[in-house]
Amino acid sequence: MSDFQHWAEMGGYAAFVWPAYAVALVVLGGIAAQSWRRYRASLRELDLLQRK
Amino acid sequence: MLTRLANPARFMRMSGAVLPLLGIATVLVLAIGLYLALFVAPPDYQQGESVKIMFVHVPAAWMALLVYLIVAAASAVALVWRHPLAEIAAQAAAPLGAAFTLVCLVTGSLWGRPMWGTWWAWDARMTSVLVLFFLYLGYIALVNAFDDMSRGARAGSVLALVGVVNLPIIKFSVDWWNTLHQSESVLRMGGPTIDASMLWPLLVMAVGYLLLFKTLLLIRMRTALNERKARALRLAAPQRRTDPAPSNATPVLR
């Protein structure tokens, strides 16, 4: 077994450790992406209204 | 400092300058924290490698409490002093707090299954954190439930203040009741009981989460200010078209 495989197995707890990191990434990354998209949209809308 | 930031224009100027640095610091600290958590921190002598869940779970729990405290404090300032940015800060922070609480609940469940043999138990700590999650959702729903934005904000602020009573219950639940959840091992009188090899990665991840919160809070507050300005411009646009000529305009003599 390679070192990477050994590490990825997390001592037999891979089925719990990786989903935990995935949930943190998806939830926090998701709200970060949503916040950024809405911020960019607000800038575009404001720019459009100020040009009128 | 707070009084200076109370001016939305000044807030936009200062936050615009700080935001890129805060974003870079967030990415760097989280990358270092993840490296330390996944590659450097040793397995626990009892829990083995499942302890790695701690590095995403515990900082999320701390942030869930801290963000609620910020929402409640900003709500109090908005209610009492009508601080122009406090209401925006509370509303911008609440979804972030809900996200940290959700991470705390789900990762806790994923840690509980191999360690306690159950995904969930209705014990004092877990139940009070679930109540915190519902308080966040209730606040968000209430703020958006009224056509009149100021009424929604006031109702939300009152709920946020009432919900503060849940914070000491969460913090001391493991001391007051016999729970499945372990007692405090970091934020406790007499210092942390956790080994330094695990404490440092945990603290770095906590700083990373805190920086992430600050970055997203500023972005969401700037968004709210932009949206309010856009709404004002949209309302003013038809009015401008129907307004009579300004009083200093040359009168037309017939």
Task: Characterise the protein shown here.
The complex is a heterodimer of chains A (52) and B (254). Chain A has 52 residues and is mainly α. Chain A has two helices and no strands. Chain A has helices at residues 3-8, 14-51. Chain A starts with a helix and ends with a helix. The model of chain A has no long low-confidence stretch (mean pLDDT 93). Chain B is mostly helical. Chain B has one domain. Helix content of chain B is 74%, strand content 0%. Chain B contains eight helices and no strands. Chain B has helices at 2-5, 8-40, 54-81, 86-116, 124-143, 149-162, 166-176, 196-242. In chain B, helix 3 (54-81) runs parallel beside helix 8 (196-242), helix 4 (86-116) packs antiparallel against helix 5 and helix 5 runs antiparallel to helix 6 (149-162). The radius of gyration of chain B is 23 Å and the shape is globular. Mean pLDDT of chain B is 88; it is low at 247-254. The interface between A and B is medium-sized, with 28 and 35 residues.
Short description:
Chain A has 52 residues and is mostly helical. Chain A has helices spanning 3-8, 14-51. Residues 247-254 of chain B have low confidence and may be disordered.
Kindly list the characteristics that best describe this protein.
A: 52 residues; mainly alpha; 85% helix; rod-shaped; B: 254 residues; 8 helices
